[in-house]
Amino acid sequence: MSKHGNNANRQQVDEKKGKRRTLTVLGYALMIVFLLIVLPVVLPPVFGYHTYTVGTDTTGNISKYGSVVYLKSVDNNSYVEGNIVAVQENDSSRDVDVYYVDTNDTTSQILMLRKGEPAAYEQIVGKVVAKTPLIGYLSQLCFSAAGIIVTILIFAAGLGLMMYVNKISKEINQAHEQNNSISH
Predict the structure, then answer these.
(1) Which residue blocks in 43-133 are alpha helix, DSSP H?
(2) Mean pLDDT for all residues in the chain
(3) Are strands 124-132 and 84-88 parallel, antiparallel or unpaired?
(4) Pick from 97, 22, 4: which is nearest to 53 by CA?
(5) How far is it, in rounded angstroms, from Cα 118 to Cα 105?
(6) Whole-model pTM above 0.70?
(7) Half-sphere exposure of 173 (CA within 13 A, CB side)
(8) CA distance linking residue 96 with residue 41, whole number of Å
(9) Fewer CB atoms < 10 Å away: N or C end of the chain?
Protein backbone atom coordinates (compact mmCIF):
# COMPACT_ATOMS: atom_id res chain seq x y z
CA MET A 1 0.00 0.00 0.00
CA SER A 2 1.29 3.48 -0.73
CA LYS A 3 2.28 5.92 1.93
CA HIS A 4 -0.57 8.23 0.82
CA GLY A 5 -3.17 5.46 1.35
CA ASN A 6 -1.77 4.67 4.80
CA ASN A 7 -2.00 8.36 5.83
CA ALA A 8 -5.60 8.58 4.59
CA ASN A 9 -6.44 5.48 6.63
CA ARG A 10 -4.87 7.03 9.75
CA GLN A 11 -6.81 10.24 9.18
CA GLN A 12 -10.07 8.26 8.99
CA VAL A 13 -9.17 6.42 12.20
CA ASP A 14 -8.43 9.71 13.98
CA GLU A 15 -11.76 11.15 12.81
CA LYS A 16 -13.56 8.06 14.06
CA LYS A 17 -11.78 8.31 17.42
CA GLY A 18 -13.01 11.90 17.83
CA LYS A 19 -16.52 10.89 16.85
CA ARG A 20 -16.37 7.92 19.24
CA ARG A 21 -15.27 10.13 22.15
CA THR A 22 -18.04 12.69 21.53
CA LEU A 23 -20.77 10.08 21.12
CA THR A 24 -19.58 8.18 24.21
CA VAL A 25 -19.88 11.31 26.34
CA LEU A 26 -23.32 12.06 24.89
CA GLY A 27 -24.47 8.46 25.43
CA TYR A 28 -23.33 8.46 29.05
CA ALA A 29 -24.96 11.86 29.61
CA LEU A 30 -28.30 10.52 28.33
CA MET A 31 -28.04 7.44 30.56
CA ILE A 32 -27.27 9.64 33.59
CA VAL A 33 -30.30 11.82 32.80
CA PHE A 34 -32.41 8.67 32.52
CA LEU A 35 -31.18 7.42 35.91
CA LEU A 36 -31.76 10.82 37.54
CA ILE A 37 -35.34 10.72 36.26
CA VAL A 38 -36.17 7.15 37.22
CA LEU A 39 -34.22 6.39 40.42
CA PRO A 40 -35.78 9.03 42.73
CA VAL A 41 -39.20 7.45 42.15
CA VAL A 42 -38.41 3.77 41.57
CA LEU A 43 -35.73 3.13 44.19
CA PRO A 44 -37.38 4.45 47.43
CA PRO A 45 -40.19 1.84 47.53
CA VAL A 46 -37.51 -0.84 47.61
CA PHE A 47 -36.43 0.57 50.99
CA GLY A 48 -39.98 1.09 52.30
CA TYR A 49 -40.44 4.77 51.42
CA HIS A 50 -43.30 6.32 49.44
CA THR A 51 -42.98 9.33 47.13
CA TYR A 52 -45.52 12.12 46.86
CA THR A 53 -45.58 15.58 45.34
CA VAL A 54 -46.06 18.46 47.79
CA GLY A 55 -49.20 20.49 47.25
CA THR A 56 -48.99 22.89 50.22
CA ASP A 57 -46.02 23.32 52.52
CA THR A 58 -46.97 25.01 55.77
CA THR A 59 -43.57 24.22 57.33
CA GLY A 60 -41.46 26.31 54.95
CA ASN A 61 -38.81 23.56 55.05
CA ILE A 62 -39.76 21.49 52.05
CA SER A 63 -38.97 24.11 49.40
CA LYS A 64 -41.56 25.03 46.84
CA TYR A 65 -44.72 23.58 45.37
CA GLY A 66 -44.02 20.44 43.39
CA SER A 67 -41.13 19.12 45.43
CA VAL A 68 -41.16 15.40 46.01
CA VAL A 69 -41.12 14.13 49.59
CA TYR A 70 -40.19 10.67 50.78
CA LEU A 71 -42.48 9.32 53.46
CA LYS A 72 -42.04 6.51 55.93
CA SER A 73 -45.10 4.84 57.37
CA VAL A 74 -44.81 4.85 61.16
CA ASP A 75 -47.02 3.85 64.05
CA ASN A 76 -49.60 6.58 64.68
CA ASN A 77 -48.70 6.67 68.38
CA SER A 78 -45.09 7.58 67.55
CA TYR A 79 -45.79 11.05 66.14
CA VAL A 80 -44.41 13.76 68.42
CA GLU A 81 -44.30 17.53 68.41
CA GLY A 82 -42.06 18.85 65.66
CA ASN A 83 -42.42 15.88 63.30
CA ILE A 84 -43.22 16.83 59.72
CA VAL A 85 -46.13 14.79 58.41
CA ALA A 86 -47.87 14.52 55.08
CA VAL A 87 -51.64 14.82 54.95
CA GLN A 88 -53.51 13.43 51.95
CA GLU A 89 -55.24 16.05 49.83
CA ASN A 90 -58.86 15.30 49.02
CA ASP A 91 -58.62 15.83 45.27
CA SER A 92 -55.42 13.98 44.36
CA SER A 93 -53.80 10.67 45.18
CA ARG A 94 -50.20 11.83 44.47
CA ASP A 95 -50.29 15.26 46.18
CA VAL A 96 -49.92 15.81 49.91
CA ASP A 97 -49.84 18.81 52.22
CA VAL A 98 -47.05 18.92 54.79
CA TYR A 99 -47.42 20.18 58.36
CA TYR A 100 -45.61 20.22 61.67
CA VAL A 101 -47.21 18.14 64.42
CA ASP A 102 -48.18 20.09 67.55
CA THR A 103 -49.75 17.31 69.58
CA ASN A 104 -50.80 13.71 69.11
CA ASP A 105 -54.11 12.81 70.71
CA THR A 106 -53.91 9.01 70.67
CA THR A 107 -57.28 8.68 72.42
CA SER A 108 -59.16 10.59 69.71
CA GLN A 109 -56.77 9.35 67.01
CA ILE A 110 -56.16 12.89 65.84
CA LEU A 111 -52.99 14.90 65.23
CA MET A 112 -53.16 18.59 66.00
CA LEU A 113 -51.13 20.36 63.35
CA ARG A 114 -49.11 23.55 63.76
CA LYS A 115 -51.68 25.73 62.03
CA GLY A 116 -54.31 24.55 64.51
CA GLU A 117 -55.96 22.14 62.15
CA PRO A 118 -56.85 18.63 63.29
CA ALA A 119 -56.03 15.66 61.07
CA ALA A 120 -57.45 12.19 61.63
CA TYR A 121 -54.97 9.32 61.53
CA GLU A 122 -56.61 8.09 58.31
CA GLN A 123 -55.58 11.32 56.55
CA ILE A 124 -51.92 11.00 57.55
CA VAL A 125 -49.87 9.41 54.78
CA GLY A 126 -46.62 9.25 56.74
CA LYS A 127 -43.67 11.03 58.29
CA VAL A 128 -41.52 13.12 55.92
CA VAL A 129 -37.95 11.81 55.98
CA ALA A 130 -36.43 13.40 52.85
CA LYS A 131 -37.14 15.68 49.92
CA THR A 132 -35.91 16.31 46.36
CA PRO A 133 -36.85 19.75 45.06
CA LEU A 134 -36.16 19.70 41.31
CA ILE A 135 -35.13 16.20 40.27
CA GLY A 136 -38.01 14.68 42.19
CA TYR A 137 -40.55 16.92 40.51
CA LEU A 138 -39.16 16.06 37.07
CA SER A 139 -39.27 12.39 38.02
CA GLN A 140 -42.94 12.64 38.93
CA LEU A 141 -43.65 14.42 35.62
CA CYS A 142 -41.93 11.65 33.73
CA PHE A 143 -44.45 9.13 35.00
CA SER A 144 -47.30 10.82 33.15
CA ALA A 145 -48.21 9.37 29.73
CA ALA A 146 -46.13 11.89 27.77
CA GLY A 147 -43.35 11.70 30.36
CA ILE A 148 -43.07 7.93 30.03
CA ILE A 149 -42.67 8.30 26.27
CA VAL A 150 -39.94 10.96 26.71
CA THR A 151 -38.16 8.85 29.34
CA ILE A 152 -38.19 5.80 27.05
CA LEU A 153 -36.88 7.92 24.16
CA ILE A 154 -34.02 9.23 26.34
CA PHE A 155 -33.10 5.68 27.32
CA ALA A 156 -33.38 4.41 23.73
CA ALA A 157 -31.25 7.29 22.41
CA GLY A 158 -28.57 6.64 25.02
CA LEU A 159 -28.59 2.92 24.31
CA GLY A 160 -28.53 3.52 20.56
CA LEU A 161 -25.55 5.84 20.89
CA MET A 162 -23.69 3.27 22.98
CA MET A 163 -24.36 0.59 20.34
CA TYR A 164 -23.17 2.93 17.58
CA VAL A 165 -20.01 3.74 19.57
CA ASN A 166 -19.38 0.01 19.85
CA LYS A 167 -19.63 -0.29 16.05
CA ILE A 168 -17.17 2.60 15.59
CA SER A 169 -14.77 0.98 18.05
CA LYS A 170 -14.85 -2.26 16.04
CA GLU A 171 -14.10 -0.31 12.85
CA ILE A 172 -11.17 1.43 14.56
CA ASN A 173 -9.83 -1.91 15.79
CA GLN A 174 -10.10 -3.38 12.29
CA ALA A 175 -8.26 -0.40 10.82
CA HIS A 176 -5.50 -0.80 13.42
CA GLU A 177 -5.22 -4.51 12.56
CA GLN A 178 -4.96 -3.66 8.86
CA ASN A 179 -2.27 -1.04 9.56
CA ASN A 180 -0.32 -3.51 11.69
CA SER A 181 -0.52 -6.25 9.06
CA ILE A 182 0.61 -3.87 6.32
CA SER A 183 3.54 -2.53 8.32
CA HIS A 184 4.83 -6.05 9.19
Answers:
(1) none
(2) 83
(3) antiparallel
(4) 97
(5) 10
(6) no
(7) 6
(8) 16
(9) C
